[in-house]
Amino acid sequence: MTALRILSAGPGVTVQDRGRHGYLRYGVTVAGPMDPFAHAVANRALGNEMGAAAIEVSLGGIEVTTEDRPLGVAVAGGRFRVTLDGEALPAAAVLRLEPGSTLRVRAGDDGMWAYLAVAGGICLPSVLGSQATHLRTGMGGPGGRLLRAGDSLPVGMETGGTTGPGEIHAPLLDRPADLIRVLPGPQDDYFAADVFAAFLAGPWRISERGDRMACFLEGPVLSHRLGFNIPSDGVAMGAIQVPGEGQPIVLMADRQSTGGYPKIATVIGADLGRLAQARPGTQIAFRAVSHAEAVQALAEERAFLAGPISVEPLRRTTFSPEFLLARNLVGGWIDGLRRD
């Protein structure tokens, strides 16, 4: 079977599919992508199923190649720096990776995560129906661990007609995180009206403490009207817990299955990726919306993903220094002193 070979991978690079659903009742974490929309865009641009296994690239970056046959590849997510054999590509791109060529995805101007999908999907053994890597339990991926140099990831058969390089047009990828929409509750009654207003106003700063399990916020202290302990109940991705110290914690992809702190609000599904892509130090605020608005926002995402993803051929006008240095640009020489 054709394989994608990892030449280098920084910290935090894992294999993720749509996640391990249906097992929270047994205490099994869902995992899956931090930015579900970007993950789906990368897959759909290649004709894969939206939830197919792909590589989630952290700020640590990755370098990959293929050795036996060309592979269709797509990258989408934050504004990372993407190069193919030194030639700069858009941050959201489809390309044909030839044997011996090197694709590099590095941290760029914005965003925390990029997704590298392969036509046919990554084909590792499933654990409880999913290839999603969850590091704390060692499930999924190649042995439940981070990707590293030397890994060889088997790839399924390509079903689409990937060409490239080309730029993916997905306007919803360019989503600033300054205002995040939330649904109040389910325990917003544990907070007085003025405290809930302060929660919405912020401003909140994304802390350095975050990881795939949770996003920690720094800002005004939120006091509890009815205490900060509740009987543990189930938590969804995007649930915003407020522990005793009064600083909110947004639970993310690797969240625990239950929690015992009041949840003042929950980030709507369409804004989970926007929050996940916000780097430490980013300032955000929240806006409460209705259930109908949350459903409509998610429906717009799904409608976009249900149709063909537009990919425009690249019109190269500039080349990166790395690309130019890797090529022989001199086809001969002349003697500038000759007077013929």
Concise account of the structure shown:
The chain has 340 residues and is α+β, with helices and mostly antiparallel strands. It contains 5 helices and 20 strands.
Major sheet: 11 strands, antiparallel
Q: How many structural domains in the coordinates? A: 2
Q: How does the helix and strand content classify structurally?
A: alpha+beta
Order of helices and strands: EEHEEEEEEEEEHEEEEEEEHEHEH
Mean pLDDT, to the nearest integer, reads 92
Fraction of residues in H or I helices: 10-25%
The low-confidence runs, each spanning 5 or more residues with pLDDT under 50, are none
Keywords: ATP-binding, Hydrolase, Nucleotide-binding
Protein name: Biotin-dependent carboxyltransferase family protein
Domain Carboxyltransferase: 25-304
InterPro entries: CT_A_B, Cyclophilin-like_dom_sf, PxpC
Describe the structure.
With 340 residues, this protein is an alpha+beta fold. The protein has two domains: 3-172 and 309-323, no CATH class; 179-301, Beta Barrel (Cyclophilin). The protein has five helices and 20 strands. The strands form three sheets. Strands 1, 2, 3, 4, 5, 6, 7, 8, 9, 10 and 20 form an eleven-stranded antiparallel β-sheet that branches. Strands 11-18-15-16-13-12-19 form a seven-stranded mixed β-barrel. It has a two-stranded antiparallel sheet with strand order 14-17. Strand 15 and strand 16 form a beta hairpin. The model has no long low-confidence stretch (mean pLDDT 92). This is Biotin-dependent carboxyltransferase family protein. It comes from Bosea massiliensis.
